[in-house]
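[agent] plan:
  1. take the single chain provided in the ticket
  2. run structure prediction with default settings
  3. attach structure tokens to the ticket
  4. add a short note for the reviewer (M.T.)
[agent] executing step 1
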Amino acid sequence: MFLPPPPSAGRRRAARRGAVGEKELLPLFGPSLGGLLARTLSRRFRSACRKVVGYRGHVRAGGGFVVEKNVESGTGAEGGAPSERDLERRRRIRRGIMATLVGGTFWGLNGTVSKWLMDTYAIDPLWLVCLRELAACWLFLAAAAVTSRGREQLAGVWRSPRDLLAILGVSLGAILFSQVAYLEAIDWTNSATATIMQSLGMVLVLAYVCLKMRRRPRRREALGVVLALAGTYLVATGGNPGQLSLPPQGLFWGLACAGAAACLSILPAAPMAKWGNFTVNGLAFLFSGIILTAVYRPWEHMPALDGVAVAVLAACVVVGTFGAYALYLQGVKDAGSMRASLLGTIEPVTATVATVVWLGTSFSPADILGFVLIIAMVYLTA
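[agent] step 2 finished; step 3 output follows
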């Protein structure tokens, strides 16, 4: 039969385990039962507290099981000033929010600039994809080589044929597919519509997650799907079911954009977890650029470019492709994927504003309502 230990033994155990100091405590059990329950339930209860409500359990000197507020909850001892660790966490989240907003803005502007280049200089979308991929891949690889860990990943991935095949699959099924579909959608419609249609990829990701986890969509997720379908209907038809407000090619490439965005969210996950973001993206951009160049032969489709076009193309590669992606990845790392997904909706907003202000494109009330519904879908399904 197990009996509660005497107070002296309880104090010694509490000291060895790191007894709670001057912090806000919530007693759960009395001193008489505390020793017994602490011996039998402490580990399991503390684990449950951490997972469910963000509290940590401790054995109190003299018996009894107590719960201490987690230092990551945002308050210091006795509800006082935040700890240094908490302040650093807040600074990191703010930095991640800013990085995500700037990266999403760069992406939105990049689509509008690409549309301007294709219209002004008669640049073929595939030619632009070749340039962006072959130029951006070296920036990704150079960023990976800056740190010692990145250099180890760059060297190690070549010794793993299976992972190289996985990255090749990412380059074809995600990078090349998304780049071609996005620029073709912009060419047939405009950057705002292409970016909004690309956001529908979250519905496909949701379907993939539900199938993989064998669960039904939650209520808000189902509502998000309904809003996405309604928004797509309004964008495609302008509210008139008897006609399309988009050319059929534009609608096709817009929906292809959504599929490509879903592939881009799913396929690179495993290789990136093992070899890092910059290494995987650098090699994926390199492989897809080489393959597309061999098939398309961009030197046979050279546009007539002046100094302005060259400068804008360089900005598209450095800022709109590499810079936007690097900032967004930093935002995911610092602020978390949930915040990054929500803040990433600044991309279609930026693309829409830039398309209206710079290119003079007009949208009908049905288009605007469709945009709003699709953006609302992102908030519901993220």
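[agent] step 4 note for reviewer: The chain has two domains: 7-72, 91-381.
[agent] ticket updated
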